Amino acid sequence: MNLNATLFVQCGVFFILALFTMKFVWPPLMNALDERAKKIADGLAAADRGRAEMQAAEKRVQAELASARDEGQKQIINAEKRAAQIIEDAKNTAAAEVARILAAAQADAENQVTKAREELRDQVATLAVKGAEQILKREVNASAHADLLNQLKTEL
Asked: What DSSP string runs through 13-51?
């Protein structure tokens, strides 16, 4: 065989192989590589979107936490105000109750003093009658001298 003919045949086989590869092997291979590149690009884009969504979600979470914190502070302030109001109401109620009890006790004491004065007047009148009996050495009729005894009671 001739070296030149072998070279031409090998060149022909190479070109046929190259044409076959370009026609049947290269396009599916390029499609597979393009699809792979597209999947990688989509994955990177999805990762970027996920990162952006995560940052947005984190901002929303921080805003919700701040809102919840503010709401909690408002509720604490309201609870403290309500507690102060309840304490003030209890103080007012207690003061009114104390005033009522003192008034009742004072009225009761005045009634007892009045009753004691009445009893004392009766006892003084009785003693005065007994004293007058002793002085006069005779019996004084209390019913006959009722006007005099009533006048004596009012003077005492």
From this structure: HHHHHHHHIIIIIHHHHHHHHHHHHHHHHHHHHHHHHHH
Q: Sign of the C-alpha dihedral, residues 111, 112, 115, 116?
A: negative
Which two tokens mark 34? 């393009």
What gap in Å lies between CA 13 and CA 146, rounded to an integer? 164
Q: Cα separation of 110 and 122, whole Å?
A: 18
CA distance 22 to 36: 20
User: Structural domain of residue 142, as residue ranges?
Assistant: 3-155
Terminal alpha carbon distance of the chain: 171
> What does the pLDDT read at residue 60?
95
Return the H-helix or E-strand segment holding 108. helix 26-136
Predicted confidence at residue 129, as pLDDT, reads 74
Please state whether the predicted TM-score (pTM) of the whole model is above 0.90. no
Q: How far apart are CA 133 and CA 127, in angstroms?
A: 10
* Count of structural domains, the chain: 1
